[in-house]
Amino acid sequence: MSKNIPSGPSPDQDSRYWKKNITVLSCILVIWFIVSFGCGILFRDWLDVHFPKVGNAPFGFWMAQQGSIICFVLLLIAYSFLMNRLDERSGYQSPEHH
Amino acid sequence: MTQDTWNFIFIGISFALYIGIAFKSRAGSTKEYYTAGGGVSPLANGMATAADWMSAATFISMAGVVASSGYDGSRFLMGWTGGFVLLTVLMVPFLRKFGKSTVPDFIGDRFYSKTARFVAVLCAIFICMTYIMGQMRGVGVVFSQLFGIGIPLGVIIGASIVFLYAGLGGMKGITYTQVAQYSVMAFAYTIPAVFIAILLTNNFIPQLGLIGNYTQGDATPVPFLEKLNNINTSIGFSKYTDGSLSKIDMFCITAALMCGTAGLPHVIVRFFTVKDVKAVRKSACWTLAFIAVIYLTAPTIGAFSRVNLIEKLNNTAYSEAPAWLAEYETTGQMAWVDKNNDGIINIHGPATSSAGKPNNNVFVSDNGKPKYPPADADESLQKGQHGERLLALKPDMTNPNELYFGTDIMVMANPSMAGLPKWVIALLMAGCIAAALSTAAGLLLVLSTSISHDLMKNIIKPDLSDREEVNYARIASFVALGVATYFGINPPSAFIAKTVAFAFGLAASSFFPTLLMGIFNKRMNKEGAVSGMVCGILFTISYIIYFQFLGGTKDQWFLGISPEGIGFVGMLVNFAIALVVRFFTPAPPEHIQHMVDRIRRPVSAPGDENDTPPVVH
């Protein structure tokens, strides 16, 4: 855990970290949009007809009532994992490691 | 044992628990008062935030709304949970890193402007105040039903309890109380759902029951949702799985709820109570997981109770109707008018009134709620020939619908509909009260800190000592509760229910874009932020006021967007105005840009604290 502890972050390091941060959260938000607005609202009718049912529920309906919520929880877990890894790799560690 | 005894036991025990916890963890310093000292574990904070977030309205009414509107109810399910994703990835890690205890603090410092801070304080006060009023009313109604006291006394009792643990304990007391409250709520909500799922679908996981088969009574199982669709269409409603809202409206309402969630001050401050940015992320995962437990159960309760309600009551003679009908008649949640004098309950879908408008009103009245003759009226005015409770309202004879039911009973009456034991009902009651009290306490805290910290300390009297500040916060929460109690006792008619949507629209059109640009747009300056915030709010407020209170009609809606969803458009207005104004005004000073750099970094670096000298203009 003790690799490259910075004496103070340089502006360059900061901007590289920020770009990666933006990449992570854009990915999360794109999926967020697809599972909720995409599946649950915009393309619901099409998905109801053309996608396999979940149990006995039409796909779009299920996504709107249950599926999207499950995806949200998974998304946050993924976000937390990815960001913690990014922090560590960029040399930003929580004070507990110092 | 009687139901009352059970209720007393459950509610007594839970109250003793809440107050005991609050007393043990009462706050000594401002830091403890505002952010519980900043060392709450992510798991505990997740539970507390979930309890804070789930208001009485969510707990009691949401399943009812889903039950009556089917697919359309998804806007609440997706909107309120999806908002947490926005909140977590776009807001709280950065605001936590900023390190001050309130949202107006961030807006005031980031935009180096007293005006911005003041506008933010006003928004926070308004959002919290409207919410608390609704919670206090809810507490009053539940108490009055439980103990047979008047609603005013119920509201006053509820207010004193909230003051005891919010005023004394501050954030520290509230956090640990809410952990207990979440546990009560989660059990109260899911246990009845499990029992009903077993009865109707032979599946003990309600979520699987909903997408499984309906097995009760029939020899051949049918898909549950098909059964529900048939029930709906057989009495004239549209299919349960089809919506009646337009796509654009559904989109805007969901988006407004999501962005509103991400801008709600009382949810944001909850994340200031954990140790560091890493803990914030973890805590947000827990929060959403705990909320999902309830939000995944809500659609199943909605669907199950709709089947139960219509199957058991429609075309049943009143004299043979289940006992809970009479129980909810006495509390005014259900009412039956025998329009065709056959003694049989008839439920119908939307009919067309003589004026050519869809109409399924049971009786003629301004708000569709039942009204009863005075208690001392003659016996013949109280009971009808079938034993039903008579109403002091004229039936609306333009349609054949005979049964009135409030959306709130879908959760409240659920255990009795399914014939569950009395202690489950008592647990549910305790859960309802926990939901109302926890939200009221959380809001009260934000309200009082907005007044004491942001208004008194940062704008009016900068030389306030720590101790005086906490005292101001206590006085502010006392006054705020007084006002909330007044409006809880004398609600401005339909005002409260409507202002919930109002509060979300406001948060979406004011806080959300401003916070977002404060973090992600380094060049955003005070002129842009203030003008964006003011224009966004004014647009949203005037749209809502025009259509809710000044009699605007549906065909005048902008692009077919209802007032519920206009907060999304208000948000776009905020963004647009801010970016345009920004283009013509000078960039923010150097130290502000450094401050933005600092909050984007997950950990503190040497010399960080000197980046941002206190800014007072």
What does this molecule look like?
The complex is a heterodimer of chains A (98) and B (617). Chain A has 3 helices and no strands. Chain A has 98 residues and is an all-alpha fold. Chain A has one domain. In chain A, helix 1 (11-42) packs antiparallel against helix 3 and helix 2 packs across helix 3 (59-89). The N and C termini of chain A lie close together (9 Å). Mean pLDDT of chain A is 79; it is low at 1-6. Chain B is an all-alpha fold. Chain B has helices at 3-24, 30-35, 42-53, 56-69, 74-98, 103-110, 114-147, 151-167, 170-201, 206-210, 224-234, 247-263, 265-268, 277-313, 323-330, 379-382, 409-412, 414-417, 422-460, 466-489, 495-509, 511-520, 526-548, 566-583, 590-600; strands spanning 213-214, 222-223, 334-336, 351-352, 358-359, 363-364, 394-395, 403-405. Chain B has a two-stranded antiparallel ribbon. A two-stranded antiparallel sheet of chain B has the order 3-8. At the A-B interface, helix 1 and helix 3 of A face helix 5, helix 10, helix 11, helix 12 and helix 14 of B. Chain B: Belongs to the sodium:solute symporter (SSF) (TC 2.A.21) family. Chain B: The chain crosses the membrane at residues 6-23, 53-71, 77-95, 116-134, 146-167, 179-200, 248-272, 284-304, 423-451, 472-489, 495-516, 528-546, 566-585. Chain B: GO terms for molecular function: transmembrane transporter activity.
What topology emerges from the helices and strands here?
The complex is a heterodimer of chains A (98) and B (617).
Chain A: H1 11-42, H2 44-50, H3 59-89
Helix pairs in contact in A: 1-3, 2-3
Chain B: H1 3-24, H2 30-35, H3 42-53, H4 56-69, H5 74-98, H6 103-110, H7 114-147, H8 151-167, H9 170-201, H10 206-210, E1 213-214, E2 222-223, H11 224-234, H12 247-263, H13 265-268, H14 277-313, H15 323-330, E3 334-336, E4 351-352, E5 358-359, E6 363-364, H16 379-382, E7 394-395, E8 403-405, H17 409-412, H18 414-417, H19 422-460, H20 466-489, H21 495-509, H22 511-520, H23 526-548, H24 566-583, H25 590-600
Antiparallel strand pairs in B: 1-2, 3-8, 4-5, 6-7
Helix pairs in contact in B: 1-8, 1-9, 1-19, 3-9, 3-14, 4-14, 4-19, 5-12, 5-14, 5-25, 6-7, 7-8, 7-19, 7-20, 7-21, 8-19, 8-20, 9-14, 9-19, 11-14, 12-21, 12-22, 12-24, 19-20, 21-23, 21-24, 22-23, 22-24, 23-24
